[in-house]
Amino acid sequence: MKRPEFIDGNGFIAEVIRTSRRKSADIRVEEGAVSVVVPVDTSLERIGELLADKRRWIKEKISLHQEMTPPSSKRYVSGESFSYLGRNYRLKVEKGPFAPVKLVQGRLVVSVPQGAEQPHMIRNALIRWYKRQAETKLNEKVTRWAPQVGVTVPNVSIKTFKSRWGSCTAKGELQFNWQIMMAPNRMVDYVVVHELCHLLRHDHSPQFWGEVGRVLSDYEECREWLKQHGYVVAI
């Protein structure tokens, strides 16, 4: 996986995504997080100019997202606890040039510039981290479980869903909600197996649950856990 690249946009942090598939820049604000997709050889100076030109629009989109985001009990300060695969890790906010979240000695460490430690910036850094973990771990789990289900390894993408953990498209692509990474590891296995079994049966018939049970004998306990505790899997 490529090392993530970021640029300080003066009040927000933008992730730089370089690709050979684009000939022009594209600025996106998704879930309050800013990214700029650019051709591979675009200079940081040019990217800075692009962000400066769009700064007002970007700030308006960020503000709109903050207004629409349900209030959180989190303050995104050092010492707060965040769950990853069912274990709790303490957040450590350091001052300095922006650096993405890293899991270091049992702590989720993020570095932000002095004066830029607004809760939404730290929240966005955490979301980016969870999404990267989801991309790696869920692909690993799909590769591990697909042979046991009896299907070929499908394409996997990471999404944000409001009320579901995963989805199997008509084309046979699996989509997973990155927030499942906050649940215990066994629950993640269950969600992966569940969606893989949809490649065999695209329904929730007794035959479908029979396929799930053939691979995971404790699937009912996992399903019940997510029904009862799914509300805690949020950031």
Structure characterization notes:
- By secondary structure, this protein is α/β, with parallel strands linked by helices.
- It has helices spanning 44-53, 55-68, 119-149, 185-197, 206-215, 219-229; strands at residues 5-8, 13-19, 26-30, 33-39, 81-84, 87-95, 99-104, 107-112, 156-159, 166-168, 174-177.
- It has a four-stranded mixed beta sheet.
- A hairpin with a 4-residue loop joins strand 1 (5-8) and strand 2.
- The chain is globular.
Quick structural overview:
25% of the residues are buried. This protein is globular. It is 38% helix and 25% strand.
Please state the overall shape, judged from the principal axes of the Cα atoms.
Answer: globular
By DSSP (H or I, 4+ residues per run), the number of helices equals 6
Instruction: Tell me the helix content.
Output: 25-40%
Overall radius of gyration? 20 Å
Portion of residues in beta strands equals: 25-35%
